[in-house]
UniProtKB/TrEMBL annotation:
It comes from Sinorhizobium americanum. InterPro entries: PhoX, TAT_signal. Pfam families: PhoX (PF05787). This is dTDP-glucose 4,6-dehydratase. PROSITE patterns: TAT. It comes from the Bacteria. Transmembrane segments: none annotated. SUPFAM superfamilies: NHL repeat.
Length: 666
């Protein structure tokens, strides 16, 4: 049966990506826990909120703060630690980078990963070929140095999902469709086949590939001994408290310990011992079928939005049909740890870290040697988590660190109105997490992480995405992308963010630099959006130019000097009049809250994967789903970036940014 892709609200057109994000972002949290908006309301009075750093939100719409741009720019230059010349925000078919920098295409969808990989032929795609080529929709990017070199290492890249309408030739078409008495153009998908599904499955997962800088330019090393593709069919192991539990035993795996594949890998991380962490996010959309409401797994799957049915995989593979194999879904939603230095190793799903829609999994070695991993649950009204290992990191024995994430304590955050964060342990038998309340063991608690966090009274957040600890300052930055579901009655003069379309950034200060602490402090670094529109309530500093503000913070990175860089997801011509990109954000001193635009993506794309090499003289960026705008199809994408050839489709790609003549980025 054909699928219609297009408008879902009145006459507003939505691309397939936007529709999927809407379906994934319904907001499954029906608990009575307070929202972050409620906490902000109670913490900040109207006077203090508008009288301090957020005063720019009160500027009248009849007097733009950009009227004094030249003075603001001068002040920004005098207070900023970033000395690049800011680029102009906008929308077009190309990417743009700050003057004095080169942004070179390093790897594109379909590029060879091995010396004997087949050449990319978009008209003759096969699962076998795709399994030996760079995957689709690159998201997280990490760099792991080899021999301690900043110019030679392994690039690890997540491949989050596929866009069939711009990926497969002769598959999507534009037709006039009548719905609710209205006729409008929509993109219509053809009938899926097993062959197409198999290609999609091979395009998911991740890539490990050796790269080297030669004459100042990065290039892949195709005969690198560590090169590897991970897909939705790669054999993996469940480890930690859930491994072997009855709720993860399936028809294909009666042991409950062997899993095939990882899917919807969004952000991720690289550990101090050089392993690659892959975060499984919106896994629910790959499952079809139905469960009866009295089925034991119905409640927790519903809380996760499963089965979502956005993909057709369940038509060809029973394991993705919850009515045929309901335990299979419990084997996804985890953090996967990969040893990139052993291409024959079996990746491990670390169940102690919890099961939800992980946006990221950035870790840091605490001052007592324990390792702390932060992760956001990317859905409206869901939560912020951290995991603290039981064991400690051994810098002299890599093998001793390989299973640190199998034992430890998972915490969920409660943000209090006095500016305190309470990290509540998610442990079976403590508080409400008992058999009487449906949690029979720690395995149950972890499989049902969302329900456990509900029961503990965690604070509902506005789509927690990437969370990045800063080793230099003891601060932790939480990207909160948006929450357009927030009701009008939840907003007031102190928190004018009903239908919060632009998101904000929360700054957590860990007590005395102890990232494992159970009490922290929090503040708002930025409320995003256009500061020239008073009702938006943005809080960028007055030194931020008309190009420097942004909406929808998504991922972030900390450079070698401890500076914050933020990438976005959702800026477009309709929402903000600009594409997504990377902004350099001041977090300290007089310039705090000042932001400058460094790089912007082509039309239809999302900016992902900001990551630096050891010395921060290379900035790796991932351009995801370029060309996915309007009535885009394979034959007529919104851009043909990065090749700009009629015989090549638009292709997601990783970009390596370097400074002309060398030197640190920024």
């Amino acid at each position: 049966m054909d699928k219609h892709l297009g408008s879902t609200e009145e006459t507003e057109f939505k691309t397939l990506t936007e529709q999927r994000e809407e379906l994934e972002d319904i907001g499954q949290n029906c608990s009575n826990n307070p929202t972050m908006g409620d906490i902000i309301n109670r913490r900040f009075s109207r006077r203090s909120f508008l009288g301090g750093s957020l005063a720019v939100a009160a500027i009248s719409t009849t007097v733009s703060p950009f009227a004094l741009l030249s003075a603001d720019e001068a002040r920004a230059e005098s207070t900023s630690r970033f000395d690049f010349k800011e680029i102009e925000a906008g929308v077009d078919e190309k990417h743009h980078v700050a003057e004095g920098y080169d942004a070179d295409i390093l790897l594109r969808w379909g590029d060879k990963i091995f010396a004997d990989s087949p050449d990319f032929d978009p008209l003759k795609q096969t699962a076998e070929a795709q399994g030996r080529q760079f995957g689709y929709n690159n998201d997280y990017v990490g760099f792991i140095p080899l021999d301690g070199s900043p110019d030679h290492g392994l690039l690890v890249v997540n491949h989050e999902y596929t866009n069939a309408e711009i990926m497969f030739p002769n598959f999507a078409r534009v037709e006039k469709v009548t719905e609710d008495g209205k006729e409008e153009d929509k993109v219509v998908l053809g009938e899926y086949t097993k062959e197409l599904v198999d290609i999609e499955m091979a395009a998911h997962g991740g890539t490990v590939i050796e790269i080297r800088k030669v004459d100042g330019k990065w290039q892949p090393v195709l005969d690198g001994k560590y090169n590897r593709r991970i897909t939705a069919n790669t054999e993996m192991q469940l480890s930690g408290p859930v491994a072997g539990h009855d709720r993860v035993k399936t028809v294909a795996d009666p042991t409950g310990k062997k899993v095939f594949g990882t899917i919807n890998n969004c952000a991720g991380g690289v550990t101090a011992w050089g392993t690659y962490m892959m975060a499984e996010e919106n896994f629910n959309g790959y499952f079809g079928g139905e469960l009866a409401e009295d089925h034991p797994e119905f409640k927790q799957l519903k809380r996760l939005g499963a089965p979502g049915g956005q993909y057709e995989w369940s038509k060809f593979y029973d394991r993705f049909d919850v009515s045929k194999d309901p335990s299979e879904a419990n084997r996804f939603g985890w953090v996967v740890e990969v040893d990139p230095l052993d291409p024959t190793s079996v990746p491990k799903k670390r169940t102690a870290v919890g099961r939800f829609k992980h946006e990221g999994c950035e870790s840091i070695v605490n001052k007592d040697g324990r390792v702390v991993l932060y992760s956001g649950d990317d859905e409206r009204y869901d939560y912020v988590y951290k995991f603290v290992t039981k064991g400690t990191y051994n810098p002299n024995d890599r093998a001793a660190n390989m299973d640190l994430f199998d034992e430890g304590t998972l915490y969920v955050a409660k943000f209090d109105e006095d500016g305190t964060v309470t990290w509540m342990p998610i442990i079976h038998g403590e508080g409400p997490l008992t058999a009487e309340n449906g949690f029979a063991s720690q395995a149950d608690v972890l499989i049902n992480t969302r329900l456990a966090a509900d029961a503990l009274g965690a604070t509902k957040m506005d789509r927690p995405e990437d969370i990045q600890p800063n080793a230099k300052t003891g601060k932790v930055y939480v990207m909160l992308t948006n929450n357009t579901k927030r009701k009008e009655e939840e907003a007031d003069a102190a928190n004018p963010r009903a239908k919060n379309a632009f998101g904000h950034i929360v700054e957590i200060s860990e007590t005395d630099g102890d990232f494992a602490s159970t009490k922290s402090k929090w503040d708002i670094l930025l409320k995003c959006g256009d500061p020239s529109v008073a009702e938006v309530g943005a809080s960028f500093s007055t030194a931020t130019t008309k190009n420097g503000w942004f909406g929808m913070p998504d991922n972030c990175a900390i450079d070698a000097d401890g500076r914050l860089w933020v990438s976005t997801d959702g800026n477009n011509e309709k929402e903000t009049g600009r594409t997504d990109g990377v902004w350099a954000v001041e977090t300290e001193g007089e310039g705090r809250g000042t932001s400058k635009l460094f790089f912007r993506v082509p039309v239809g794309a999302e900016m992902c994967g900001p990551s630096f090499n050891l010395t921060s003289d290379t900035f790796f960026l991932a351009v995801q789903h370029p060309g996915d705008a309007g009535l885009a199809t394979y034959e007529k994408p919104a851009t043909r970036w990065p090749d700009f050839r009629d015989d090549m489709p638009v292709r997601p790609a990783v970009v390596a940014v370097t400074k002309q003549g060398g030197g640190k980025i920024g």
